[in-house]
Every structure is written in C-alpha cells, then in structure tokens.
Design goal:
The structure is a single chain. The protein is of the alpha/beta class. It has three domains: about 90 residues, NAD(P)-binding Rossmann-like Domain (Rossmann fold); about 180 residues, UDP-N-acetylmuramoyl-L-alanine:D-glutamate ligase (3-Layer(aba) Sandwich); about 140 residues, Mur ligase, C-terminal domain (Protein-Tyrosine Phosphatase, Chain A). The protein is about 35% helix and about 20% strand. The protein contains 14 helices and 18 strands. The strands form three sheets. The chain has a seven-stranded mixed sheet, with helices on both faces. Strands 13-14-18-15-16-17 form a six-stranded mixed sheet, sandwiched between helices. Strand 7 and strand 8 form a beta hairpin. Helix 5 crosses helix 8 and helix 13 crosses helix 14. It is globular, with a radius of gyration of 21 Å. The termini are far apart.
Length: about 425
Amino acid sequence: MKKIYFVGIGGIGMSALAQYFRDQGAEVTGSDRETGPVTELLEKNGMQVVIGQKKENVPSDVEIIVYSDAVSEENPERARARELGIHQKSYFEMLGKVSDDKKTIAVAGTHGKTTTTGMLAKILHDAGASPTAVVGSIVKDFGSNYLHGDSDIFVVEACEYKDHLLELSPQVLVITNLEWDHTDWFPSLSALQETFRKAIRRVPEDGVIVTNPNDKNIAPLLVSAKAKVVDYMKEPALKLRLLGEFNVNNARAAAAAARAVLPTISDSVIAESLASFEGTWRRFEYKGKTKNGADVYDDYAHHPTAVRETLKALRQKTKNKIIVAFHPHLYSRTRDLLNEFSTAFCDADRVLIAPIYAAREVDDGSISSEILASRIRATGTEAVALDFDAIETEFTKAESVDTIMTMGAGDIYKVADQLVLK
C-alpha cells in the first residue's frame, strides 16, 4: 500500500500502526479531533496530522482508510471514503492483517497489558531479537508507542473490547489476569471469559499461552488450550524501578513470554532489561511538583482493581496526605462496578470525582459523579464531585508534604500537567 489515511490517527494504537506503515514506505496522513502528546509525536516524526474531521480532508487517491474504534460510520471522512469507493478497515482488522504473517506475541488481560507489552518489547530488543512492537502507551525507553524491528517478531497489545482480540492469530498469547470489564459490551464475566476461551483455542499446538493458571477466572478456560501453558508466577520477583506488586507480576509475565519467544535467553539479560525499564506514559507517572511543593503523579487506572492497587502502592511510598482526582470512564462501567469503585479509594485521604467521561455513551441518568462520591463517603473516605477547574483549584491548596494523583482513562492528566507548569 502506497497511500493510507487514518481517521483518528491520534489514538494510541492507531498512531503506532501509522508509524509502522510509514516505516514500510507508505505515505501516511490522518486526522484527529484535537491535538495531544500523540499527535505531537507523529508530527515530530514528519507525519501530517489534520485537526478537525471534514470530508475534504480525505485525499481522493488514498488506497485505504483505517479508522479508530471510536469513529462512527457517520463520520464525514468515512462517509467521503464510501463516496469515493475507498476500502475501509478498522484498526484491529488492519492490525490482524499486518500481524498475520509474523510471529505474533499478543498481550491481553484486564490489567497491566500496556506495561507488560512495553517490558516484553524491551527485553527482546535488549536481547538483540529486533522485534516490532505496538504498545498502548508511549514507552519512555523508546520515546514512542511503536518500536521498529527487522525480525518477524511482532509484539502487540491486544484488547478484548468488541472481541478485537480475536482479529489476531498469536503464536504466543499472554493473559495477565481477568476481571469483568467493558461492561457495555460484555454483559457478564462469563461473556468476557468466552472471548478469552476462543482466543485460547486459537493458539496453535506449537504455540504458548503465558498466564497465571491459578487465577480463578482464567483456570476454567485453559481446558480448551491446545498450546503449552506457561505459569508466569514461577518467574522470580525481579528488581524494578516501578512500584507495586502488580508491576512485579507484569515483569514476571514479560519474562516468561520472552523465554517462550527466545528459549536461550539468559536470566541476566532479562533481569538487566527489566531493572532499567523506565515505564510508560500515564502509568504511575511522576509529573513533578506543584508551586507549593506537593508531588504530582498521574495514572491511567479506570477499573476498581487498578485504582485500588495503584493507590496501595502510592500509600507504601508516603505516610502523608494523598489527594486523588478520579475521572470515571463510561457511565456503564461506573454504574456496573459501583460497589467495587466505592471501596477502591481506601488508601486515599481525599477523593475528587470529575464528571464521568462519556466517550461513546449517552447519559441515561442512572449514574453520576455525585452518586459515586456519595458511595465513597459512605465507606469513610472523604469524597466530593467537582468539575476540572474546581479540582485544579483544590490541588493548588495541597501542602509540600502532600501527594497528588490524577487518575482515569480520560483527559484528567491535563490537570496534572497544568499543576506542574504553574
């Protein structure tokens, strides 16, 4: 393919795929609704990004349109592509096509897949295996969410939402863990498990499934496996720069997957690579200090377990006050996991709940940030619902010994960025 246009090129997966095709010699252009760290990264790398999505943006001579999952069929650029007879593929359809003839290692699971994917890519890179990698965040070690490789090894972060995981045909499937999530697509944990059961069946006999076979939500699915199952929990707990027991387990999964790909890899290469891993954007990321001297962190956590474990790790780092701004992601997730969210903030001293990030959903009035704040207060943790401006104002009052964390899958990170700029 010579000319490709990406609708929603600023998406974290979309931008990585755009960089891959540019590496392959294609002329890549695209659009997004607004600028951000990812669009800036693309422009820095010489790619043209149009802000604002209009019919006239689409070149008439592009061979294919790749669109983000967040882009509807009614999008004016997709409508223009139909008028011009330009073939369209979703991000995950294209990712499946790209990876089909490669030795694909897919990293899936409810929590930790971004960090695990980044760790695995770095281990293989440091071992000289020259992998290509598509990661769901900017990996600090690479300065990108994409890693160029010259071998047939293709490391990709996989997502179960809308069964996208099933677009891939991995030789190695990593399942970090499994909990009910994406409740707007999966009506129950069992529905989510069925998608993973299908993914497990797809791994060939000469392939490998890397997981924790003692995880109660994963164990029943492994009876469907044709491939060898490797228990990543048998890997040693290695020294990391990153905090939290969850990151120790992410490292275990990455190490076990690296051994599955490169059976002769040494323990020392794995240990040294993981010890120097710097982490990824928006995963327990230290941003700096406020004008008053309070430490500021940002994290992508948007599921109750991720919130709980991240704050547990932060609490181990400080005995002083922790103030958290949480940006709930989706009405459905907030409503369906409300009980779990209400107890997830026990390690915080004060919680500021931003308005729910609607993304692809419409507010039906059944849930709100005020309801979540009330439920958190009922557990004994101080909580209040505020808009972004009020949250930023509250944060400016934090004292030098306090710790601030912005949290969520929306754009709450912008508040953290503003705090350390002032």
